């Protein structure tokens, strides 16, 4: 199988790019993510492939560093742009064009921040998607996708499944199986990251419930997915890693609940992964100050 990827490196780069959505440089993680996405919606699956391919292809044509392309660093924000647009809107010709263009632009923005050595995580995806959603809502009449209006049927296992649903919602997938597959995909790459992510999703759900957030949305994982990403960033085997995970997750949850409760970003489609990015930036700053003081 490794020979297959050596002969077709572009496929390897694309799969790693999809895996990097949850910070995993692993082609098998990316493949499982892709399977989970297709299980939720074929449109989202195709959109992820197109946008990730567009981002990767752009990086290759612009001669960005091969090591960065191989690691999938120009694929994950592009992938999220694709899945977000296909999830939010009916997939018209304009949406498909924007999925490809958005994926390419995400790679360019990602490269700018990589050059500046600024850890932006999914920020290129956020900026591009906010702008496109705002423009599409105000200047077109493209209807929302059927996925937005689909009713979630409650089950006896909602409390239990909320923890893995947090993984699913990172990539806009509300299906139970998708969430489980995404958790497994991270676990095969980094068990410690998966377990920290699981704990963060549970904590996000629990604290949001105490804060009076809608129980249906909590069960869907909408108040856990940003916490999952923040936990994965700081996950590690040291005892201090657990402390940084906790700090990052608590800050992320607080930002998430605050923005959602006050409808701060409804005009641009929602918070997306902004609470994760903001929470992680703040935690990295605290970490930097702490290490300087300690030194």
TrEMBL record:
It is a multi-pass membrane protein. The chain crosses the membrane at residues 31-59, 71-89, 95-113, 120-139, 180-206, 218-237, 243-260, 267-290. Pfam families: UT. The record marks 273 as: Important for channel permeability. GO terms for molecular function: urea transmembrane transporter activity. Keywords: Cell membrane, Membrane, Transmembrane, Transmembrane helix. InterPro entries: Ammonium/urea_transptr (IPR029020), Urea_transporter (IPR004937). It comes from the Bacteria. It is found in: Cell membrane. GO terms for cellular component: plasma membrane. Its main location: membrane. Belongs to the urea transporter family. This is Urea transporter. It comes from Chryseobacterium rhizoplanae.
């Amino acid at each position: 199988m490794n020979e297959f990827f050596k002969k077709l490196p572009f496929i390897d780069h694309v799969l790693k790019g999809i895996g990097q959505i949850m910070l995993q440089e692993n082609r098998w993680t990316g493949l499982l993510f892709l399977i989970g996405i297709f299980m939720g919606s074929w449109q989202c699956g195709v959109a992820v492939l197109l946008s990730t391919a567009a981002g990767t292809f752009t990086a290759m044509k612009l001669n960005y560093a091969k090591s960065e392309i191989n690691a999938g660093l120009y694929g994950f924000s592009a992938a999220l742009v694709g899945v977000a647009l296909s999830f939010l809107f009916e997939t018209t010709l304009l949406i498909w064009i924007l999925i490809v263009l958005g994926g390419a632009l995400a790679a360019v923005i990602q490269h700018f921040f990589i050059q500046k050595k600024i850890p932006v995580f999914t920020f290129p995806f956020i900026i591009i998607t906010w702008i496109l959603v705002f423009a599409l809502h105000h200047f077109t009449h493209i209807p929302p996708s059927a996925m937005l209006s689909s009713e979630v049927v409650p089950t006896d296992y909602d409390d239990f499944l909320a923890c893995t649903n947090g993984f699913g919602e990172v990539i806009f997938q509300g299906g139970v199986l998708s969430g489980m597959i995404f958790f497994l995909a991270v676990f095969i790459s980094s068990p410690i990251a998966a377990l920290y992510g699981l704990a963060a999703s549970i904590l996000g759900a629990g604290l949001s419930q105490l804060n009076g957030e809608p129980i249906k949305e909590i069960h869907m994982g909408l108040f856990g997915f940003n916490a999952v990403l923040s936990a994965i960033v700081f996950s590690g085997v040291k005892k201090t890693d657990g402390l940084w995970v906790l700090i990052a997750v608590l800050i992320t949850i607080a930002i998430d609940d605050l923005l959602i409760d006050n409808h701060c970003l409804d005009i641009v489609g929602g918070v997306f992964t902004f609470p994760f990015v903001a929470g992680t930036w703040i935690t990295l700053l605290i970490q930097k100050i702490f290490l300087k003081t300690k030194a």
